[in-house]
Amino acid sequence: MIGFKDFNVLKKRQGKKTKRVLAIASAGGHWLQLLRLRPAFDDCTVTYATTLTGLPEEFGLERAHIIPDFSRKSKFKTISAIISILLFIIRIKPDVIVTTGAAPGLVALILGKAMGKNTIWIDSIANAEELSMSGKIAGKWANTWLTQWPHLQNEIGPYYKGSVF
Question: What are phi and psi of 115, to 5 degrees?
């Protein structure tokens, strides 16, 4: 299991306000892996975002938002989604953005980093042989860049700190 001590960027500093976290992932396996990180967010105010209507309610999440789903194959949807995610980040003002992927999480990570937010990318456990395409790009933008497979880490990242399965 990924060590929650590795997420000290999430912890409230003495005398400081609670950290605001945007936890964002596409529906499916990315979402399930993100939800397994919930104990890391105990001291935080978390807003979740995913791509499938009804999914947050299924897991009892009150602070949640549905974002547009897209892929690199849909240029118009991509532009619309980028604008939507940007406006959402501006509205909720997170201190930290955490994602397990895929494309919507990568966009949030890049936009957040450009806005001075702390960013954490955790590549999907499904990518056992090599990093995902989004995971490779995320390395240029993430403050913390993680893989869930020890043989995929290297000295410049991504780093292995455990897995969420």
Answer: -95, 5
Structure tokens given for 60: 């009892």
| Signed CA dihedral, 147, 112, 57, 75: sign only | negative
First to last CA, the chain: 7
Structure confidence by residue, pLDDT tens digits, 7-32: 667 776 666 788 999 999 999 999 99
Q: Which residue has the tokens 């990518």?
A: 127
DSSP 47-103: EEEESSTTHHHHTT-SSEEE-----TT-HHHHHHHHHHHHHHHHHH--SEEEEEESH
CA 88 to CA 82: how far, in whole Å? 10
Distance, CA of 44 to CA of 75 (rounded, Å): 35
Count of residues for the chain? Answer: 165
